[in-house]
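Appendix B. Raw example, untouched.
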Amino acid sequence: MANERDRPGQGPAVGEMKQTLERGAASAREQAQQLGEGAQRQARQMSSDLQDQAQKVVSEQKEMAASGIMDIVSAIRSAADDLETHQQGQVASMARGLAGGLEDFSQSIGRRNFQDMVSDVERFARDHPTAFFGGALLAGLAMARFAKSSSRHQTAARSAAQRAGQGGQLAEFARQEREHGLGPAAGSTR
């Protein structure tokens, strides 16, 4: 302390520096706080955006699930009609009942959130295991029938396209034989 008093002008300069440093520290604290608040705002916005995107994906998946279930309902009803024509009225009636239940479920998908639907399916499976597994079996059979039917159509279309391509190749081969005198019209005795 004796040294500070001995040096003239050092006392007020140190005080000013101290104030300058304190102002700089306060300014840095304010800037850090503003940066922190800005980061929190951005994090909340990103979280909100992610929630919006997740909700959109869930909504699209619900629509796809409802559409898929309605395809299964259609296949089950078609199978029920086939069973009816083969004098299997009792089984056809069960299939139609299943189709009606699935149709109701499909319609409820749009009105409910995903977790509620999972809970309902789990509850139904616990309360009615035979019906649940029977429905799963019928749905599997209906999907297999649908897949088999789709496969036949694709195979038939592919075969027709191949035959058309081969027919064109055979016609070209016959034309070339006639031009070169090698075909049956040229008097060959094969």
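End of appendix B.
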